Amino acid sequence: MSAEKQIEDYYDALRSGDPLEPFFAEGEVVKVGISERLVGSNQVAEGLREQTETTSDWTVASRDLRVTERESVAWFADEVRMAWTTDESEDHDFETRWSGTLERVEAEWKFVGMHVSVAREL
Fold first, then answer.
1. What is the structure's pLDDT at 110?
2. Are 111 and 10 a contacting pair, CB within 8 Å?
């Protein structure tokens, strides 16, 4: 499987409410979201489980996925519209920028770094 396919599968899992932690490598990984910074695979897994349990109705619309893949490492950037509903019925909708790094782990691509941000108008 290509790194690009793994990223697309992650987007699909997010939309479907499927577990997200299997997409991340073990150990020293970092995931920065719109309102969080998770360091280490345990913290990332816990944050992703909580997110999956407390949100629904995800929209993940990729607009400009660009992936560069080498033998054992890949990096990507994308513009993504993200929207979801919380358990408290709060709706969220953001135009976001994604970037990250994947590492090939036993013939499978895993995220070792992910950053999601919202552009701020100046």
1. 98
2. yes
